[in-house]
TrEMBL record:
This is UDP-N-acetylglucosamine 2-epimerase (non-hydrolyzing). GO terms for molecular function: UDP-N-acetylglucosamine 2-epimerase activity. Gene3D superfamilies: Glycogen Phosphorylase B (3.40.50.2000). It comes from the Bacteria. The keyword Isomerase applies. InterPro entries: UDP_GlcNAc_Epimerase_2_dom (IPR003331), WecB-like (IPR029767). Belongs to the UDP-N-acetylglucosamine 2-epimerase family. Keywords: Isomerase.
Length: 393
């Protein structure tokens, strides 16, 4: 008998990280795969569905301009109920920490459907940072039957909360699986603005005449004053260093776009684009001297390319990158953003210590470990794949 697995996701990062897993489930002789998208994001989700050629079985199409958290939560729960009754899956998979993740898990729980949580166990232990992601991820913990922790640190967090060890599988992060074939030396950018730029190559990104900084800032806790400070710090840096160019693919959220265009628009070395197709984005960061971001996923991707990352947040649930050394947490103060970026442009020794090309988040085989654990759970296999081993941090 094949077991029915439904993957539910709704935003860009969930889709990027679930795509390799959906493909691995489809390849399993013991499982059937279905996909439901909430479309908490619309255009930014569709970009990823197109790239990975995923055709959802159901699309809840919930996105509204400037949607509130309550709207997302209630619409997902209301719209998912009938669909889950019709599909009657054995297992529902959710990913990470979005409001789609939490609401879908709650909806599955109401119908006594087993839940698998991919990218489980990351914590800052501060319920407002990141907001609301810390609690979204945390609340799925007690609802889930299977926990796919990307690292042993995440597993330890779950153990601390009383989750049974036999329900936790350390798999690595599927985001590393998605990077395998993305970056190529002769890559042709699809985005017309990027295609027209003279960007550094993979081999001369640290020595090129123009140093490329990729910027991506969008999180709720940075809206308003913190975001203005971050952008002002960057503007000061670019005005001082004539050999620096910034590319910022601006999130579609109006709260981000208004601030970005107000402070960084109309500058000849600051290029604001629409959100990029994911392969374009991977090839952009791989050609960058430095990445400045509040994104979770980008913190996990950049170490694969040995590109230093400055994280403009007060706290991160991804400490492995800090310990490994490619990532530095610098807060949201304008002067600190300017000073820390400046140091990386001028202090070669510091820059070289942050350039380690070694990803602590995975080895590219997370999806197959997750499928193996699901097959084991349903009795198709004696033992799951061995845990992904990272040095404990
Ligand atoms: C969401 C997640 C966040 C994740 C981010 C990834 C929650 C609460 N937040 O935040 O964890 O880091 O996605 O990008 O789950 N919009 C569009 N088109 C799109 C996408 C968004 O127009 O394709 C606009 C809409 O006006 C929408 C707004 O952006 O209302 C905000 O989207 P929302 O999903 O609520 O929040 P994000 O900040 O994107
Ligand atoms: N990304 C993308 N296009 C862009 C910017 C980012 O495809 O213009 C990808 C990036 O490679 C990473 C993911 O989006 O895989 C991160 O998503 P996001 O920053 O929106 O959310 P977070 O990870 O912070 O939840």
């Amino acid at each position: 008998m094949k077991h029915r697995v439904v993957s539910v996701f709704g935003t860009r990062p969930e889709a990027i990280k679930m795509a390799p897993l959906v493909s691995a489930i489809e390849s399993s002789p013991n499982l059937t795969s279905s996909v439901v998208v909430t479309a908490q994001h619309r255009e930014m989700l569709d970009q990823v569905l197109d790239l990975f050629k995923i055709e959802p079985d159901y699309d809840l199409d919930i996105m509204k301009t400037r949607q509130s958290l309550s709207e997302i939560t209630s619409n997902v729960i209301l719209k998912l109920e009938q669909i889950l009754q019709d599909m009657n899956p054995h297992l529902l998979l959710v990913h990470g920490d979005t409001t789609t993740t939490f609401a879908s898990a709650l909806s599955a729980y109401y119908q006594k459907i087993s839940i698998g949580h991919v990218e489980a166990g990351l914590r800052t232990w501060d319920k407002y940072a990141p907001f609301p992601e810390e609690m979204n991820r945390n609340l799925v913990g007690p609802l889930a039957d299977l926990h796919f922790a990307p690292t042993s640190k995440a597993k330890n967090n779950l153990l601390t909360e009383g989750i049974s060890e036999n329900k936790i599988f350390v798999t690595g992060n599927t985001v590393v699986d998605a990077l395998k074939t993305s970056v190529q030396p002769q890559y042709q950018f699809q985005d017309p603005k990027l295609a027209s730029l003279d960007l550094p190559s993979l081999s001369n990104r640290t020595t090129a005449n123009k140093k490329l900084i990729t910027l991506e800032v969008h999180r709720r806790e940075n809206w308003g004053a913190p975001m203005k400070n971050i952008f002002k710090g960057i503007k000061k840096l670019v005005d001082e260093f004539q050999d620096v160019m910034v590319v910022f693919p601006v999130h579609r959220n109006p709260a981000v776009r208004e601030t970005a265009y107000e402070i960084l628009g109309n500058h000849d070395r600051i290029i604001l684009t629409d959100p990029l197709p994911t392969r374009d984005f991977h090839n952009l960061i791989a050609r960058s001297y430095l990445v400045l971001t509040d994104s979770g996923g980008i913190q996990e991707e950049a170490p694969s390319f040995g590109v230093p990352v400055l994280v403009v947040r007060e706290k991160t649930e991804r400490e492995e990158g800090l310990k490994q050394g490619t990532v530095m947490l610098i807060g949201r103060e304008q002067e600190r953003i300017y000073q820390e970026s400046k140091k990386l442009l001028t202090d070669k020794e510091l820059y070289e210590t942050m350039r380690k090309q070694d990803n602590p988040y995975g080895d590219g085989f997370a999806s197959s470990r997750i499928v193996s654990a699901i097959e084991h759970y349903y009795g198709h296999k004696d033992a799951p794949e061995p845990d992904y081993k990272v040095s404990p941090v």
